[in-house]
Design brief:
By secondary structure, the chain is mainly α. It has one domain. About 85% of the residues lie in helices and about 0% in strands. α1 packs antiparallel against α2 and α2 runs antiparallel to α3. The protein is elongated, with a radius of gyration of 14 Å.
Length: about 80
């Protein structure tokens, strides 16, 4: 089980790093669905990994990180829907 939790944590880390790399290199922008998805996947992986290993400050931080991503996707979805009408 611990190996699976570590894999989930590494997937989370890679997701966050890829998102950061792509935004930093101008391949994505911060308000793209792809960037937000990478952040939500990354924070989800860290939530699971951190909770399993008892790192509660990291759990709290990543819950907030995920909420920000979900909120941003909601705003983008609503904005895109209203411009199509």
């Amino acid at each position: 089980m611990e190996m699976i939790i570590n894999i989930v944590g590494w997937i989370g880390a890679v997701s966050l790093l890829v998102g950061y790399l792509l935004v930093s290199n101008g391949k994505l922008h911060g308000k793209s669905y792809t960037y937000q998805a990478l952040n939500m996947i990354g924070s989800g992986g860290f939530i699971i990994n951190s909770y399993y290993f008892g790192a509660m400050p990291s759990v709290g931080l990543n819950i907030i990180w995920m909420i920000i991503g979900v909120h941003t996707v909601f705003i983008l979805f609503r904005k895109n829907r209203s411009t199509k009408k």
